[in-house]
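Worked example (supplementary).
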Amino acid sequence: MSNFLAKKLSAQQQYVVSLLFILLVSGVCFGIAPLLGYRVIAFILLLCVSLIAVSFDILPVLISAVLSAFIWNYFFIPPRFTFRLGATEDVILFIMYFVIALINAALTYKIRQIEKASRKKEEKVNTLKLYDTLLHSLSHELRTPIATIIAATDNLQSKNEKLSQENKDQLVTEIAKASFRLNQQVENLLNMSRLESGFIKPKKDWCDINELAYSIVKKIEENKITQRITININPNMPLVKTDKLMLEQIIYNLVNNAVLHTKSNSHIDISAVNHADILQLIIEDDGDGFPESEIENVFDKFYRLQYSKSGGTGLGLSIVKGFTEALKGNVILGNLSTGGARFTIEIPCETTYLKV
Amino acid sequence: MNKAEILIIDDEEQIRKLLEITLKTNNYNVTHASTAKEGTVVASNHPPDLVILDLGLPDKDGLIVLQELRQWYTNPVIILSVQSSEDVIIRALDSGANDYLTKPWRSGELLARIRSALRSSTQEESEPIINSEDLQIDLQSRMVKRKGELVKLTTTEYSLLALFAKNDGKVLTHQYLLRAIWGPGFINQSQYLRVFIAQIRKKIEDDPNRPEYLLTESGVGYRFISKQG
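After joint prediction of all chains, the assembly is encoded as:
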């Protein structure tokens, strides 16, 4: 609560609130002074100062401490309505009141400073961790294909006579695969930095979801995948108005993700329907699904499943989320009862049935 | 037939080298330039049959080079650039580029685009017939046949298909198509275009979902490929 209050109120408001608080409580005490005796009132006022110290900065607290001390002296310690202190006992009490109030203020201030420092440290550790993950993931995902290309070309250039034509073909295939992978990672990084820069603005135009789905599948199937992809979309589905390239990237990343993380012969299905002005896209597979404990994190930047085999920077799904949100939609991930993962994307968009 | 001469304007030596190997091994003659200035000089001294132009040149924006070239040069220009945003692609096509490929490119794709661009630039006006495997388009008698059978097209569908046939292999932008077929007031009505393209595909493609003739260039436009020759 303390931080919450301090954050909500400006410095000026803190002064006003703490002074009003002291004055109000003093007023109430003034009314009931005959019933309680002035020493109890000292404790009530000290409590107020402590409460203020929990919530506010050091200066308002100090001022409340001083003010309450003088109020106590003037209005409550006999002889009342003078700053004069009669009994020696009262002098000691007054000095102690003053000192306790100040210590109170100073201590809470110190505690809060320490809290702040440790929070800062924690943030720094988290950022470092993120950078670490990023560097680790990037260096692995970029260096593996680069290493493959360099090693393969070295072999091809070596003029080693033992290298058969079949070996050479294999090496060339590896170079091709590695460069494709490299290109994909760079594409993801570029998209991510576009998202990060806040530079991304959807450009909406009429889009044929059927056409889009088929062209994406065609592109993915060019890589000789072993999974079977089906498309389940009503051929008469209306056109939807959205950013086609962003939607393409969303579907591509989801399907590609399924391809990367399911065994061969798995089945991946793409379906789409529109409910009024909401486009709903579902991409599901019959693989192993996601560990329930990690579902929450898979859309985080650079997040990769704990026992994930390889093949991603951990950017694909965060781009899906970023783009979907840029289109004012949302993405939900769940596991199917039969195993396998299901991504549901919902994006609000205009639709049109145009008859020719 | 003489070997066609292709001029490569690109500042990256590696790219020039790779293009040169690809093109020479496919029976083209190659010249190259590494700056806009050098490219313009080479092109004007000895006009090539086709230019492959990079947009990120050190001394001048490739789009401006393209516009300057187009003031006198009529043979095909193919843009080969790392810039992949639709805006740039559309601007390049509007400035007179015949085609646009983004880096990284596939050699097979590049060669196909070059063949198609060269074919359309040498094509005589008097051979308005597309005669491919199972599709015939006769622009003179306004007849379209698929697998020997007459295809019934509405007037608009025919005008659209005829426009594609005349620009065989070339990307036509959404705006260009809308203006040409529906008129200048319709350049933002892309939904018409999508519906008509879907209709034409149903009539001329084996599988309208996996088109082989009328291809989509995402965010840019459409391209008709006749599969002939």
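Two points are worth noting when inspecting this output. Chain B has eight helices and twelve strands. The CA atoms of residues 161 and 200 of chain B lie 8 Å apart.
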